[in-house]
Amino acid sequence: GLSRLRVACCDVLQPCFPLVPEPVMKIVERLSTLVALVTIALVSPLAAQAQPASELHGGWVIQDWQAPEGQTGATPQRGLFMFTESGHYSIMYIVGDAREPLGANPTDEASAAAYGPFVANSGRYSVSGNVITYEAFVAKDPAYMAGFEPTGGDGNAQTMTFGIEDGTLTLSFGEGGPMGGATATMRRPGG
């Protein structure tokens, strides 16, 4: 690894500078080692961060939703999840029965009925193995959004496991999160 890089660097430089004394070439050799170590130190933390799985990138719509065992309640009627290559996500879905369209001057009750079942949050995510950890930078729920930590940390982080098979994404949401224990089966939009 590093010793081969150092030797290769000096082997390349020596013919270019045949009159350079041996002690100077030793300094060049040590400097090339130092540059290689600094490069490794700077790049390693970036490489150590989990990279999103490329199959996950793009948009997914809810095809089926399973509540945790023993739990009843409304299931999403529509939903769109997006995962970008840059490590950002957006989740939006509507829980419950079909909503009535809002008129030109909706009442407070009509607005609450329309927006109450709407779930939305976006932020950053990372993938490690088959686990997605996501943190909401912006969310419909102000309390959930307030937990975001810009410099990282646990903050409002939630997890879900995923699997992709034959173009179908299966997400299983971790306990304690807003979708605690549910499983969503998703497909690509238009598919």
What is the secondary structure topology, with strand pairs?
Blueprint: H1 2-16, H2 22-48, E1 58-66, E2 76-83, E3 88-95, H3 108-115, E4 118-128, E5 131-139, H4 142-146, E6 158-165, E7 168-173, E8 183-187
Antiparallel strand pairs: 1-2, 1-8, 2-3, 3-4, 4-5, 5-6, 6-7, 7-8
Helix pairs in contact: 1-2
Would you write up a description of this structure?
The chain is α+β, with helices and mostly antiparallel strands. It has four helices and eight strands; from the N terminus they run H-H-E-E-E-H-E-E-H-E-E-E. The protein has an eight-stranded antiparallel barrel with strand order 1-2-3-4-5-6-7-8. A hairpin with a 4-residue loop joins strand 2 (76-83) and strand 3 (88-95). Residues 1-10 and 31-52 have low confidence and may be disordered.
Features:
alpha+beta; 4 helices; 191 residues; 8-stranded antiparallel β-barrel; 34% strand
Give a short summary of the structure:
This protein has 191 residues and is of the alpha+beta class. Helix content is 29%, strand content 34%. It has helices at 2-16, 22-48, 108-115, 142-146, and strands at 58-66, 76-83, 88-95, 118-128, 131-139, 158-165, 168-173, 183-187.
Unreliable runs, pLDDT <50, ≥5 residues?
1-10, 31-52
- How far apart, in Å, are the first and last alpha carbons? 47 Å
Fraction in beta strands = 25-35%
Indicate the structural class: alpha+beta
Mean pLDDT: 76
Q: Can you count the beta strands?
A: 8
Helix content: 25-40%
Query: Which outline best applies?
Result: globular
Strand-and-helix sequence, N→C?
Answer: HHEEEHEEHEEE
